[in-house]
Design goal:
- There is one protein chain.
- The chain is an all-alpha fold and 300 residues long.
- The protein has two domains: 149 residues, no CATH class; 148 residues, no CATH class.
- Helices cover 70% and strands 3% of the residues.
- It contains nine helices and two strands.
- Strands 1-2 form a two-stranded antiparallel ribbon.
- Strand 1 and strand 2 form a beta hairpin.
- The longest helix has 29 residues.
Length: 300
């Protein structure tokens, strides 16, 4: 299992680093244009995996509407990236676009169910499930796009990467500590292998990585006269990211347990499916966005 995890990671990480490098250095004045298509595709793949969970329970919402609607929400979140100079008088602002995308997705779900309706039973559940996927995956993931648009190109990329790096280091820390000395189950019903010791290890590693990330950012990005992120704030940020990530991990475990499925899919050896990789990122994105816009971390 660990061997396959490392092998998959050795393929995925270099590709992601290449896209991140392109997005930071060759974006033609439009930060996010390389990462946005990747985010839309990942959202669509994750939505498809959610449909598999529903199928296991006998529920079959309209597949194309669910997937396309989720991708529309994510694409809407990235729409402001297409402007070199975003119009300051736009009523939606930079962060209102996902709401429009979600509203469109809801209407699409209703229209699709209207077209195939034949007899009572199922339509309400199918619409609700489609909208749930658009919200759970599309809307939560849209905060990643919002993070990319914070401040300028450098800080926006730093904000986005801080979430992904810290939460994944936290996941790895929890996994390693849990395997080494895990004794007390954290949530035996939802995820029997997760332990309290692993959770503590995840929090500690997240805090340490957060401190390291902001030590680097303070040295490289903070200009003269700007306030640096204090150590206590970076530690609080790491704690918030770790806890939010655990909630996201357990949330997906709840969905899989309810569907009686171990992995959302099996096409990434050792890692499961796309949803298994991004589950913790989905819930950390809005928490991290709040930390950045409220001024806990970032440029003063």
């Amino acid at each position: 299992m660990l061997r396959w995890r490392l092998l998959s990671a050795s393929v995925i990480i270099p590709l992601l680093l290449l896209i991140v490098w392109l997005d930071g250095t060759m974006n033609f004045g439009r930060p996010g244009i390389w990462l946005a298509p990747l985010g839309v595709v990942i959202a669509g793949l994750a939505a498809g995996e959610m449909l598999s969970l529903f199928h296991a329970q006998g529920n079959r919402p309209v597949a194309w509407v669910t997937v396309v609607g989720t991708m529309v929400v994510m694409a809407s979140a990235c729409a402001p990236m297409m402007w070199k100079e975003y119009p300051v008088d736009c009523p939606l602002g930079r962060f209102g676009w996902p709401m429009m995308g979600l509203a469109l997705g809801v209407v699409m779900a209703f229209i699709a169910e209207m077209r195939r309706f034949e007899k009572p039973g199922g339509a309400i559940v199918h619409v609700a499930l489609s909208v749930f996927v658009m919200t759970y995956i599309g809307l939560l993931a849209s905060f990643l796009g919002a993070l990319r648009m914070i401040h300028d190109n450098a800080w926006g990329l730093a904000a986005l990467l801080s979430v992904i790096i810290i939460v994944k280091v936290s996941d790895s820390g929890a996994y390693a500590v849990g395997r080494l000395c895990g004794r007390h189950p954290l949530s035996p019903t939802l995820s029997p292998k997760k332990t309290v010791e692993g959770a503590v290890g995840g929090i500690v590693t997240a805090c340490l990585m957060s401190w390291l990330v902001f030590a680097v950012l303070n040295a490289r990005l903070v200009g003269e006269g700007e306030a640096v992120t204090p150590i206590w704030a970076s530690l609080v940020y790491g704690f918030i990211i770790a806890v939010a990530g655990m909630i996201g991990d357990l949330a997906e475990s709840l969905l899989k347990r309810d569907a009686d499925i171990k992995d959302s899919s099996k096409w990434i050896p050792g890692l499961g499916g796309v949803l298994d990789i991004i589950d913790s990122v989905l819930t950390t994105a809005p928490a991290a966005f709040a930390c950045w816009i409220l001024g806990l971390v970032g440029p003063g």
